[in-house]
Design brief:
0% strand; HD/PDEase_dom; HD domain-containing protein; HD_domain
């Protein structure tokens, strides 16, 4: 995610200090998983506060900014400014990348090991619903990732076309692949 915040941040006109805040937030944003899978963003802010407070070059304002950026990635995302939008787009950047499948498969394994998903069909259904509702917030992410995200949705729909439960769900709701 560090690479993504830098790429999207520069393209969105973010300054040097803000890029540093974004990169630090990206480094800490999933660190809370070592404490709890649920609420990992909150625990990530605690780890960031604890570690960064030992360095005199990070002001309380810097640390609060970093923590705010970490919390911006909590679902559902609702960024309030450009920096938060960069964080949100970077966090879910993989949805529109060419390495979506291996990243998605790794996430499936992670959730399956924690008994948070039971099988691959349910995972694909969950992904389809999530990606259908997902939006990128920055013009840069929309330009870089939206086309490939749409093709991921089409691929998932083809996989799910053979799933009677999914077809039943689709007949009861209007689900369209975003343009």
């Amino acid at each position: 995610m560090v690479t993504e915040v830098e790429l999207i941040g520069w393209a969105e006109g973010v300054n040097d200090e803000e890029i540093l805040m974004l990169k630090l937030a990206a480094l800490f944003h999933d660190s809370g998983h070592i404490v709890s899978y649920q609420n990992h963003e909150f625990y990530g802010t605690q780890i960031a506060r604890d570690m960064l407070s030992h360095y005199s070059n990070y002001t309380p304002h810097n640390i609060e900014t970093i923590c705010r950026l970490i919390m911006a990635t909590k679902m559902p995302p609702n960024p309030q400014d450009t920096l938060e939008a960069v964080m949100c787009d970077s966090d879910l950047d993989y949805l529109g990348r060419t390495d979506f499948i291996p990243v998605s498969n790794a996430l499936y394994q992670e959730l399956k090991e924690r008994s948070m998903i039971d099988n691959f069909n349910n995972w694909n259904r969950l992904q389809f619903k999530f990606i259908t509702k997902h939006q990128y917030f920055t013009p840069t992410a929309r330009q870089l990732r939206e086309v490939n995200k749409k093709s991921q949705l089409e691929r998932l729909k083809k996989l799910l076309d053979h799933d009677p439960d999914f077809l039943s769900d689709l007949s009861h709701q209007s689900v369209e692949i975003p343009e």
